[in-house]
Design a protein that fits this description.
- This protein is 32% helix and 22% strand.
- It has helices at residues 4-23, 60-72, 78-88, 260-272, 276-286, 302-326, 331-339, 347-350, 358-371, 373-379; strands at 100-103, 112-118, 127-134, 141-144, 149-150, 153-158, 167-175, 180-190, 193-204, 208-212, 215-220, 235-241, 247-254.
- The longest helix has 25 residues, at 302-326.
């Protein structure tokens, strides 16, 4: 027969062991709560993320704690273990991006692992964060961004400002019926902190983001859906650091094309960026009578194809004259450019004959376009909303946004 002290000591040991297992996340069943106490959910088994079919039932705090427990309870390189976990959850990266990257972010000789996590509840509405994992085996620290964003994507790690620290380039994406729109984030990491710059860099259907030296290069810019039209082209936009630290457009080009409509666009983009030689060459190519305006097909209604070709050629001649006026070229040369136009819209350029400067030529051309609306209608005739739509006032400035 056991004495009462022995029984009491045995019960005490069992109670302590049960509590220890519960705190370690190993308790299988939570103890029933008293009627007057709130129900407390059992602790998540932080080392058992691989036991979960998906992460959707966990909060971000649990995911953060769980990643630390998962990594510190095992051994081996971090990146493959993160990849294995995400593969188990069937978490796939945004096309052309990645889920995991490794680099020495702060230049101290130790490699950090960067990853983006998102839930798998919805293809269009999944949310997630950026994680940075630092430290050494069984002593890993998990830091995360304060931002919880839609469909995060990880692109590259690069020292864009050459300060010896690598920045994290990632993005958030909203998904529409036919077109996705991405906003680029740039984050800096130091132990315990992820600081994110919300840049104003956005792009539709972002296909790629990469660092080339001090420049960030984005490729994409098209719009989906039949109504967008087939005359659109993929864009490559290069950003570089300004002295104030912000990223500004250094260059923007559309995929190469030999059609006059696209040559006009190339000239306008080059002129906007200050590359006047490239602009002049593109405008000159767009004026060539033998050059097709666009490929055969559904980009332009048949009844407007010839009108579009004339409108593009005449508008390109006007822009050549603007460049010459800006460079103080002798008036007779400008007069030759403006007076040498032909076709149903030759009145656009000839209206600017005799102008002393760009401002005067611009005012005359704008007035003519207002009085002859068929020209603007022809210039805007490519079918699809993913093409620039001009107004008379736009003829002197940059290409309208599209």
């Amino acid at each position: 027969m056991h004495d009462r002290n022995s029984v009491y000591r045995a019960r005490t040991v069992l109670t302590a062991l049960s509590l220890s297992f519960a705190l370690a996340g190993c308790a299988g069943v939570a103890a029933p709560a008293r009627a007057d106490e709130p129900v407390i959910s059992p602790a998540t088994h932080v080392g058992g993320l691989m036991d979960l079919p998906d992460p959707n039932a966990l909060s971000l705090a649990q995911i953060t704690e769980g990643l630390g427990g998962y990594l510190n309870s095992g051994s081996g390189p971090v990146a493959p273990r993160i990849e294995a976990l995400f593969d188990h959850w069937k978490l796939r990266p945004v096309p052309n991006s990645t889920l995991v990257l490794e680099a020495d972010l702060d230049g101290n000789g130790t490699t950090e692992t960067v990853t983006v996590y998102r839930d798998t509840k919805s293809a269009t509405g999944s949310t997630g964060v950026l994680f940075v994992i630092s430290g050494t085996e069984r002593q890993y620290q998990v830091d995360r961004s304060a931002e919880e964003v839609l469909v995060p994507a990880l692109w590259t790690l690069s020292d864009l400002n050459l300060d010896g620290r690598k920045e994290i380039i990632w993005s958030t994406t909203s998904i529409g019926a036919n077109t996705t729109t991405s906003q680029v984030f740039i984050s800096d990491w130091s132990p315990g902190t992820v600081q994110t710059q919300r840049s104003d860099i956005t792009m539709t259907n972002l296909m790629k983001a990469e660092a080339q030296g001090k420049e960030l290069v984005l490729i994409g810019g098209t719009k989906g859906g039949f109504g967008a039209g087939s005359a659109q082209r993929t864009q490559t936009v290069r950003y570089k650091r300004e002295t104030d630290g912000r990223l500004a457009v250094a260059d923007k080009r559309l995929v190469a094309s030999e059609y006059s409509y696209h040559k006009l666009q190339d000239g306008l983009l080059a002129e906007e960026l200050g590359d006047l030689d490239r602009a002049g060459a593109a405008y000159a190519a767009a004026t060539e009578p033998s050059r097709q305006v666009l490929p055969p097909g559904d980009s332009v209604p048949d009844e407007w194809r010839e009108k579009l070709a004339d409108a593009v050629r005449t508008f390109s001649q006007l822009r050549i004259a603007f460049l010459q006026l800006d460079s103080a070229t002798p008036g007779e040369f400008v007069g030759k450019v403006l007076g040498g136009s032909w076709g149903q819209y030759e009145g656009l350029t000839k209206s600017a004959l005799g102008a002393k400067d760009r401002q005067g030529a611009c005012a005359a051309a704008t007035k003519w376009a207002e009085e002859n609306p068929d020209f603007i209608k022809a210039l805007n005739s490519p079918r699809g909303y993913a093409n620039p739509q001009w107004k008379p006032a736009d003829l002197c400035g940059p290409m309208p946004a599209f």
